[in-house]
Structure formats: C-alpha cells, structure tokens
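My main concern about presentation is that the manuscript never shows what a single data entry looks like. For the editor and my fellow referees, an illustration may be useful. For illustration, here is how one protein appears when written out as sequence plus structure tokens:

***
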Amino acid sequence: MRIGELARRTGTTTRALRFYESQGLLKAPRAANGYRDYGEEDFRLVNEILTLQAVGFSLDDTRPFVECLRSGHESGDSCADSIEVYQRKLAEVDACLAKLGDVRANLAAKLTAALVRKPRCELTTEEP
C-alpha cells in the first residue's frame, strides 16, 4: 500500500510516517516507480507506535516494541526490552503521582489554615 493509504488507515499523516521512517521505525521498500510500498506489518507497527504515544510514550520509548514486533512476536510487549520500558514508565508515573499528592496535601493544608483564620474579609460589590 502507498503512504497515503497507510496514513488514512492508521489515522495519522504522511508527514508522520516519513518521520517514523527517518527515525528508523519504519522501513518501507520502494516500488519500481520510487513510491514507498508498505505492507500489513507496517500497519501493525504504526498502530503500535500510535497506541504507545497515546498513553504518553515518547517515540524513542516505542523502539523496543517495534523491534519486538519486527522480530516476529505476536505482541510488541513480548520482549524483555519492552517490559523494561513499561517498568521505567510506570516508575515515572508513580513519581509524578507522588509529587502531585504532595502538592495536593500542601494546598489542602493552606486552605484549611485560611478557613480557620478570623476575621475573614468579605467581598463587597459596588452598586452603580
């Protein structure tokens, strides 16, 4: 299939597909006329890339999953390198959640302190 069809089928752009190729994630052979000739394997690879990016993976993070599929595995996360990326990303998310928990606790403490202080100023509105 040509690049436009692959882009349409995967819901991405031809520009993105060319970028993936420039980054070594796609390797489309050229037809006699010079056009890229993508197959169903490329369709699977692009879907894997897009799915992983949708959950926050960088393009570089997708490499082990793409390589795993390329090596013939049914799933991109069947290989040890892919599992390592999952573990690293999960640790990053946990760290972000912990930081957000600290921020939330700090805000809640400030709100509680503000609510118990007396006197409170009242907002006034001026009448025209």
Q: What stands out?
A: The helical segments are 3-10, 14-22, 40-54, 63-70, 80-116. The mean pLDDT is 92. The CA atoms of residues 77 and 121 lie 58 Å apart.
